[in-house]
Every structure is written in structure tokens, then in C-alpha cells.
Amino acid sequence: MTVNQILSTKGKEVYSILSTNTVYEALTVMSEKNIGAILIIEGTVLKGVLSERDYARKIVLKSKSSKKAFVHEIMETNVVTVSPSDNLEYCMELMSTKRVRHLPVLENEIVIGIISISDVVKAIIEMQKDTIQHLNSYITQ
């Protein structure tokens, strides 16, 4: 299964903000959309990603104010990305080795979607269910 197949099921909706937004504004959008990370896109260029983990480690634990801090101060700029043709095994390996939970999907340098660890796990579970069902039908024939 490929990233594109996940996006075709999940959808390609992407939420983004600017690096000049406050962290509080970013958290508000993340809460409203029920997402754990938000992309920072300026024009069509992916500049970074801000996750709940970034907030916890770079604002809360350092006693900073989310209403005074700007996204560009705490966002991750070395963003790990994938392409629509990448397979799930590659995504799992990236998520594990790079210790990230979200992978923006880029096609021709433009963000066309984002997948999370839960998206990948759900897809793998569905693939395993299909395999089990196929094996069961093979055995019972």
C-alpha cells in the first residue's frame, strides 16, 4: 500500500498556519480541527511543522507563554516528508527512526496531504485483515 492510497481513503485536507502566528493561535486551530500537528506553509512552501510535543517541550516545560511566543520560535524546520508513491513500510521506518508522528506528503515540492502514525497503523491493520480473510477463504475451500 502507498501513501497515495491512504490519502485517497483519508482525504487530502491540510491545515496550515503562518510562522508569524502565535503558538496560542496554532493550538486553537489544532484543537478546533482535532489534530496533533499543524503545518507551517508560506505561499506554497512548507516551512515547518508544529506538534503538541513541540508545545509541551518548548513552551510548557520552559514556562513560556503561548500567547506571546511565535510559531517560528518553536516549530520544527527540518521536516521529514514523503511522496505519494512511498510505501507504508518506508513511512513506518521513517517515523520510527526520525521519531516523528506526522509526515507531510509532497508532490513537486507542494504539500498535497499529511499522514499520521495512526493513519499508517490503520492501513496496516486493514491490510492484515484482508490477508487473514484471504487465507481463511483459501483454507476453507
TrEMBL record:
InterPro entries in the record: CBS_dom, CBS_dom_sf, CBSX3_CBS_dom, Diverse_CBS-Domain
Domain CBS: 8-66, 75-131
SUPFAM superfamilies on file: CBS-domain pair
UniProtKB keywords: CBS domain
Gene3D superfamilies per the UniProt record, alphabetical: CBS-domain (3.10.580.10)
Entry-linked SMART domains: CBS (SM00116)
Pfam entry (one): CBS
Superkingdom assignment: Bacteria
Keyword Nucleus on entry: no
Record keyword Nucleotidyltransferase present: no
Protein's name according to its UniProt entry: CBS domain-containing protein
